[in-house]
Design a protein that fits this description.
CATH architecture: 3-Layer(aba) Sandwich
CATH class: Alpha Beta
Strand content: 25-35%
Number of helices: 7
CATH superfamily: P-loop containing nucleotide triphosphate hydrolases
Shape: globular
Strand order of the largest sheet: 6-9-10-3-11-12
Order of helices and strands: EEEHEEHEEHHEHEHEEEH
Helix content: 25-40%
CATH topology: Rossmann fold
Largest sheet: 6 strands, mixed
Structural class: alpha/beta
Length: 254
């Protein structure tokens, strides 16, 4: 823990096409912490992910997003990225004709605002691919074109490894992965997690948490965090289901 949190979501209200999706969201992530945000479809998980990185379709009506003490709500997506924020997409897009290594080199140039030398970048890329146990031929493939679901998600984690963000938001990285792909992606995330970075892992299921041990688990229902706890909360949620938790919460209301 630190006196100055790395990342704070404070009373966040968000609308999409005039409909309020997030209804007072609170979350604090410190360096070195892994937070899991769980919730059913439609609870606001992906809305939160896209809002944190500044997607223009998601309109903040109230609240703040503080990164290293600065409110970033009025900053563009690229400005947030340059400050050290990162989003791994649930559905990564294909970029035909653009090789992974060229894409990553341009991304590093944009984020670091400095042209990396060919030698320097090659060393960085190969180090990160070895860390993630990726075949080096992967770098010469076109971005996500013909990739399996697992390869697309590993490519997102490779981007995170190369860009070295301080705050990473992973939006349902486990979505659509089989058991082997899930284990490989989770191992990559574990290899990158450390004392410098905060990590928000957004997920629908508990299964990825069998591989990644979160410090905190939060449950999002109807646009609000309704319960927070440790790893045991995810196990409890797996047993009760989201509807079981919803009924329990209603019973607690006097």
């Amino acid at each position: 823990m630190t006196d100055n949190p790395l990342f704070v979501v404070e009373g966040l209200h968000v609308e999409v096409e005039g409909k309020e999706i997030l209804k007072g969201m609170y979350l604090t992530v410190n360096r070195g912490e892994i937070h899991a945000l769980m919730g059913p479809n439609g609870s606001g998980k992906s809305t939160l992910a896209h809002t944190l990185l500044g997607h223009p379709r998601y309109v903040v009506t109230r609240g703040r997003i503080l990164f290293k003490g600065e409110d970033v709500i009025n900053l563009s997506t690229d400005a947030r990225a340059r400050k050290g924020m990162f989003l791994a997409f649930q559905y990564p897009l294909e970029i035909p004709g653009v090789k992974v290594r060229h894409f990553l080199r341009q991304a590093v140039k944009a984020i670091k605002e400095k042209e990396p030398s060919v030698t320097e970048f090659r060393r960085l890329l190969l180090e990160r691919m070895d860390l993630l146990e990726m075949d080096r031929s992967f770098a010469d493939r076109y971005v996500n074109e013909g990739f399996s679901g697992g390869e697309k998600k590993r490519n997102e984690i490779l981007q995170m490894a190369v860009l070295e963000p301080e705050m990473a938001v992973l939006d349902e990285t486990d979505s659509g992965l089989d058991i082997d792909a899930l284990r490989i992606v989770a191992n990559g995330i574990n290899a990158l997690a450390g004392p410098r970075m905060g990590l928000l892992l957004i997920t629908h299921y508990q299964r990825i948490l069998n591989y990644i041990q979160p410090h905190f688990v939060h449950v999002l229902l109807d646009g609000r965090v309704v319960r927070s706890g440790g790893k045991d909360l995810a196990t409890e949620l797996e047993a009760k289901g989201y509807e079981g938790l919803r009924k329990e919460l209603l019973e607690e209301v006097p």
